[in-house]
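Suppose you are handed a protein chain with no further information: no name, no annotation, nothing but its sequence. What can you learn? This example shows the usual starting point.
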Amino acid sequence: CQVYLRDEVDLSPLEAHANHLWHFLANDGIDGISDFVPFTRLSGLGQTWRDGMHFPGSMNQLERMAWTNFRPKDISALPEAPLLKSLSLVSANIESLAGVERYKALSELSICRAARLSDLSAVQALKSLSRLSIESCKRLSSVAASIQPLPLEELSLINCGAIPSLDFIRELRQLRKLV
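A reasonable first move is to predict its three-dimensional structure. Written in structure tokens, the prediction is:
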């Protein structure tokens, strides 16, 4: 079931389904969930970031996570999710990707409109990362050293800082798509 809501909506009735809800995606403008502790079976989650959210110690089923208006300065504010395969941040306040290295299963990472992002070095630890998309991150200009050890198949660098050379893609042996 998919429901598109407008304006503010009381989402408290969702708690009755917390133990068997698999996906929750809220469009912008909806307050979203603030206490994720009862939602133990979520495998997909997407909503606007809210200060003061509560997460369980680990979201063991979560495979996909997407946030808009992400305000923390790095990824460490996100919940533990050992099975996380896809992470998307739109309109993020992050300066670095510190903390992303704990998502060992991460294969897709998308960062869009993160005006303060200037450091990608934490992605070096993501040995399963095959898709990386960075868009409208103007302070980001040095990507080569951070992504060369990765098994990237798809790389998108759109509207970022000036990248002086594409020589670094020679080392990306599995690259199939470059945007």
